[in-house]
């Protein structure tokens, strides 16, 4: 038993033998106690049962107790398994016994102490072995007189029999446990021999002593690290080089107080060869090899050599690494926005404090406006200042500075090269010439060196970046090259922002010029509007309010998808087209049909001739409101449904039939929805940028808009502000156009309507009725021209039109509107009548005396309308020569 495994097996064998002996002894004790307890319980139970059985007391009191009790006792003994059941009288003479010869004999030792008046149990050694006897007294019916006794005896089973029954199981269990221990010992022995390369303990001890001496004698640090990054061994040199604590073994390398990069390298487990690593104030050459390269690595061995003599080289490498890192960071942080000022501020923030203690950026004024500078100039505006507290002594942001010709900024801008002033105290003349008080203050604060670098893009100087140092070492030649590289990267971002500013300014200017600068004050509606361009640039959203004949008004909102000049120009084309089509007084569905054809034609022409962006994606919502009846006709093409706010604050989205966006209709007709709006209701038209963005769905936006509008008694201006405060996205990616119109109804007292029979004789009566109505309105001076116009229009309707014929006269603020409707679709045309013509002269007179006139078609005919101004003096009939009247208006013309 020389091996460790053999000794372990011998120990296990001894333990198992002791365990088996202890188990056997415990088994004997347990068996004895168990049998004794069972015997006591059985004898007591049988004795109690027999003594209290029905008939036992009567039998004991009978003349011949034996004849009655003996059969019962024997029967009880056979069925219960006891050895005997003996009944005897109080004097101790037996009535029953298994051996009939002993019946009538006297029992000695009747009681045990003074316990004869109560049941008692005794143990004795009989001829059959250890036995238990229980004696129970039988009382008379009065409960105090003892009539007799019942004694029941039970022989206790042999402990050896019980042990012999269970001993094989015990021995089997011990053998099985010994077999398992033997197998386990064999496996452990095999494992130990494999891990120790079949070395015995003495050889392992010798090898350990040899390796320990070598490890602690070499002047190279050695670490053994497990696969879980725990330090298993470290020699004295490794402890010295890494300043390891005394209890370093069995701790993870990340828990040894090492720098994060050092701990990460040591615990990486990868193969490393002569990697130079800075650990504290020592420069180490690190080698790492896995313990078992042929299989899964179980750890690694690390060797460390002190190469502190390479410190200077490592310092320069670290500076170069930091500079490269700073340039990389500058590429990420500079130019995050297309804002010139913000880009300049990002340059200053990147440079401080890793390169300079303070940084300033000055740009030429044209650059801030997006223009191109005419050439380098010593006059620049400060746009960024960042650095230590002393940086506040530099010229503040926003100040226009004219640098003296000898200053590094002026020299660098003129030559287009960076300028280094390594000692400001030795060359403070230019600072004194620039600003004596500020120069003295800067020198007192410790600023000692300066680098100024021009920001150049495509050979054009955009401005100058200045880097100041106060605490660090003065700038050198390497710093100058780095500053030029940093400024070159920033200049590209500044120029991109300048170009974007120029394009954005042009697009916004175009957008603003194409949108209405102010909306007309109309009697039909009270309107308010908002337009917000997207953060990425202006787009193609627009709105408009167009007065229509008959005191009606058209409300328009549209959207051209996209941003920039193309979207703004397209929007201008569509808005102009809507104005032109509105002049024709077309219904909403017909107007959208014409606009759809126009967009398709424009799109086709641009794609064929200029290979330009298409106009697909344009949407429009067009509504016509008539204040005389409160009716509103709406049609939409790919646009969100409008919202209607009732006077009580109830909000609903109007179910206007939808159509594809303009230019994509495929020839399908547009549909119009007609409804009547209560007076004082608010009609809300908007573009999708208000209710939909990247972070919010359309349903969420519409629900938010509903809540913002659900307030009664709000003016359109207040409604616009409520909507923007509640629904406006934090960062909108699309334009937003919002138009709110509160409806009005014309005063019925300012309107007059007459049904006209198809009889020329009624014209005179109609003229008289109109004259009386004009007198009621205080417009007597307009009676002559109005009668003339009505006579012509009504007569033409009777002669050329069909019934029903109606005349409507409306006073709308400073206008007098006359409308004659009939059931025909024929339209009169203004022309110069020839001498032989029978007609054509009346319409010429209408055009002479009315301010405007025109025709609009309805579903059941047409309406001829005229409009006269009540503010300007009425047309003087005398102003038209008598000859002209006679030439143009003859009796035959009627």
Please tell me about this protein's structure.
This protein is an alpha+beta fold and 894 residues long. The protein has five domains: 124 residues, Beta-Lactamase, CATH 3.30.450; 92 residues, Beta-Lactamase; 172 residues, GAF domain (Beta-Lactamase); 219 residues, PPM-type phosphatase domain (Phosphatase 2c, domain 1); 142 residues, Heat Shock Protein 90 (2-Layer Sandwich). Helices cover 39% and strands 24% of the residues. It has 22 helices and 30 strands. The strands form six sheets. It has a six-stranded antiparallel sheet, with helices on both faces. Strand 29 and strand 30 form a beta hairpin. The termini are far apart. The relative contact order is 0.04. The C terminus is likely disordered. Keywords: Cell membrane, Hydrolase, Membrane, Transmembrane, Transmembrane helix. This is Serine phosphatase RsbU (Regulator of sigma subunit)/anti-sigma regulatory factor (Ser/Thr protein kinase)/PAS domain-containing protein. Its main location: membrane.
């Amino acid at each position: 038993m020389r091996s460790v495994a053999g000794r372990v097996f011998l120990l296990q064998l001894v333990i198992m033998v002791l365990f088996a002996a202890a188990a056997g002894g415990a088994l004997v004790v347990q068996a004895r106690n168990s049998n004794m307890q069972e015997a006591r319980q059985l004898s007591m139970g049988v004795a109690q049962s027999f003594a209290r059985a029905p008939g036992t007391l009567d039998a004991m009191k009978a003349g011949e107790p034996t004849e009655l009790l003996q059969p019962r006792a024997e029967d009880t003994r056979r069925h219960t398994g006891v050895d005997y059941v003996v009944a005897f009288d109080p004097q101790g003479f037996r009535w029953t016994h298994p051996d009939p010869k002993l019946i009538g004999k006297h029992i000695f030792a009747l009681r045990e102490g003074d316990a004869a008046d109560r049941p008692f149990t005794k143990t004795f050694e009989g001829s059959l072995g250890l036995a238990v006897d229980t004696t129970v007294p039988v009382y008379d019916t009065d409960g105090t007189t003892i009539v007799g006794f019942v004694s029941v005896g039970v022989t206790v089973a042999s402990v050896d029999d019980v042990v012999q029954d269970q001993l094989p199981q015990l021995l089997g269990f011990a053998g099985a446990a010994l077999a398992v221990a033997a197998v386990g010992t064999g496996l452990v022995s095999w494992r130990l021999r494999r891990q120790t390369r079949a070395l015995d303990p003495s050889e392992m001890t010798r090898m350990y002593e040899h390796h320990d001496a070598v490890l602690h004698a070499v002047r190279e640090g050695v670490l053994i690290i497990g696969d879980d990054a725990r330090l298993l061994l470290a020699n004295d040199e490794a402890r010295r080089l890494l300043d390891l604590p005394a209890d370093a073994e069995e701790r993870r390398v990340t828990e040894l107080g090492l720098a994060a990069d050092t701990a990460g390298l040591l615990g990486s487990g990868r193969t490393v060869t002569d990697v130079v690593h800075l650990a504290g104030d020592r420069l180490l050459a690190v080698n790492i090899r896995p313990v078992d390269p042929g299989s899964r690595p179980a750890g690694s061995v690390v060797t460390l050599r002190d190469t502190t003599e390479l410190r200077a080289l490592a310092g320069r490498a670290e500076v170069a690494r930091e500079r490269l890192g700073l340039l990389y960071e500058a590429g990420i942080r500079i130019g995050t926005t297309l804002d010139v000022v913000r880009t300049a501020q990002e340059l200053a923030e990147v440079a401080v404090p890793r390169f300079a203690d303070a940084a300033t950026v000055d740009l030429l004024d044209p650059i801030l406006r997006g223009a191109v500078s005419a050439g380098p100039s010593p006059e620049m505006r400060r746009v960024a200042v960042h650095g230590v507290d002393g940086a506040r002594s530099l010229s503040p942001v926003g100040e226009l500075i004219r640098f003296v010709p000898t200053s590094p900024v002026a020299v660098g801008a003129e030559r287009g090269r960076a300028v280094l002033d390594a000692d400001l105290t030795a060359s403070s003349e230019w600072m004194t010439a620039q600003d004596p008080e500020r120069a003295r203050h800067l020198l007192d604060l410790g600023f000692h060196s300066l680098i100024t670098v021009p920001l150049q893009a495509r050979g054009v100087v955009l401005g100058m970046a200045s880097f100041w140092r106060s605490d660090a070492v003065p700038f050198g030649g390497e710093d100058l090259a780095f500053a030029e590289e940093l400024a070159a990267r920033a200049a590209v971002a500044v120029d991109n922002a300048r170009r974007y500013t120029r394009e954005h300014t042009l697009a916004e200017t175009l957008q603003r010029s194409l949108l209405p600068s102010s909306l007309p004050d109309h009697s039909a509606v009270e309107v308010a509007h908002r337009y917000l361009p997207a953060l990425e640039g202006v787009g193609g959203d627009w709105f408009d309010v167009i007065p229509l004949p008959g005191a009606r008004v058209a409300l328009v909102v549209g959207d051209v998808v996209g941003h920039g000049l193309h979207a703004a120009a397209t929007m201008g084309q569509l808005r102009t087209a809507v104005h032109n089509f509105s002049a024709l007084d077309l219904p909403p569905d017909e107007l959208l049909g014409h606009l759809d054809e126009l967009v398709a034609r424009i799109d086709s022409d641009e794609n064929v001739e200029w290979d330009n962006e298409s106009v697909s994606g344009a949407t429009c919502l067009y509504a016509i409101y008539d204040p005389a009846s409160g009716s509103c006709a709406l049609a939409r093409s790919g646009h969100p449904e409008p919202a209607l706010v009732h006077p009580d604050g109830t909000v609903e989205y109007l179910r206007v039939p939808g159509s594809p966006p303009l230019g994509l209709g495929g020839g399908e007709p547009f549909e119009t929805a007609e409804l009547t709006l209560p007076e004082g209701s608010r009609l809300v038209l908007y573009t999708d940028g208000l209710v939909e963005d990247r972070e919010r769905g359309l349903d969420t936006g519409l629900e938010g808009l509903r809540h913002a509008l659900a307030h009664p008694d709000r003016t359109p201006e207040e409604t616009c502000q409520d909507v923007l405060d509640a629904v406006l996205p934090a960062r909108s990616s699309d334009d937003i156009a919002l138009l709110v119109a509160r409806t009005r109804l014309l005063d019925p007292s300012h309107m007059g309507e007459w049904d006209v029979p198809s009889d020329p004789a009624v014209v005179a009566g109609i003229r008289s009725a109109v004259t009386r109505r004009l007198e009621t309105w205080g417009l007597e001076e307009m009676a002559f021209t109005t009668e003339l116009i009505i006579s012509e229009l009504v007569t033409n309707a009777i002669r050329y039109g069909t019934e029903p014929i109606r005349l409507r006269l409306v006073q709308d603020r400073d206008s007098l509107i006359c409308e004659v409707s009939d059931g025909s679709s024929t339209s009169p045309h203004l022309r110069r009548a020839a001498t032989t013509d029978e007609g054509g002269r009346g319409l010429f007179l209408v055009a002479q005396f009315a301010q405007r006139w025109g025709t609009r078609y309805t579903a059941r005919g047409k309406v001829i309308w005229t409009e006269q101004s009540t503010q300007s003096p009425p047309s003087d009939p005398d102003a038209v020569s008598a000859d002209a009247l006679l030439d143009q208006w003859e009796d035959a013309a009627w």
